[in-house]
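This part of the workshop introduces the protein records we will be handling. The structure tokens are whole numbers drawn from a learned vocabulary of backbone shapes. The record below serves as our worked example for the rest of this section.

===
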Amino acid sequence: MPAQASGDARRGQIELVLLDIGGPVYDDAAYRDALQRATGDLLAERGEELDEARFQAVYDEFRQRQSGSLRTAVAAHFLTPQDREQLSERAKRYWSYPASALHPDVLPALRELAGNYRLAVVANQRQAVLEALRRDGVAEFIDIWAISETVGVEKPDPGIFQYALREAGTPAEHAVHVGNRLDTDVRGAHRVGLRTVWVLRGEAPPHPTPEQLAEPDVAIRSLAELPEALRQLQGLGG
């Protein structure tokens, strides 16, 4: 699927590419499975059993809506809203990215991008994700790190995007954020003046609507399409 730019895509030189981790780099199934396992644990402790098909339906509904917290939605549907923090802490025990979770298009795309742009990670993740990124050869391409556990704020808070821009010394008009969520990635980045590339995998909706597709500056399905999408945003693409 070729990159598609919205009609009002802003033009101008891009110097810095901000990159989300879950979805664009690693398969989001790793977090979904951790949350499902944690939910099953908590239900089992109460003598109940998790309906896995229903869990997937809730997950897909959340993806389609592109709004709110998955942990909150799962707690409300299967436990109680008050169980959200306990669910979150339990899920952390199981949340990790095996090497097999790395999308095969990531390293080739980063090799191509690294010669033309500075690269930053802006992600709602624990600091421990750095171990997986080093193991899998991703970290060597990254110039700027903005991990929520370290920065102290999570997307869509403007602070985490602004932190990365300050660290890079790059104004927002010369940067673009690449992520797979409308609420945290696309809308959050737009609030600070960043252009956006929406990666349609992971927690992106199973069936994006025309209205959703109009929100980012460009929508792609693979990071193999990212170099051309960035050229297109700068008025250099086909």
Summary: The first strand starts at residue 4 and ends at 5. The chain has two domains: 16-26+99-236, 29-94. The chain is about 45% helix and 10% strand. The two ends are 14 Å apart (CA to CA).
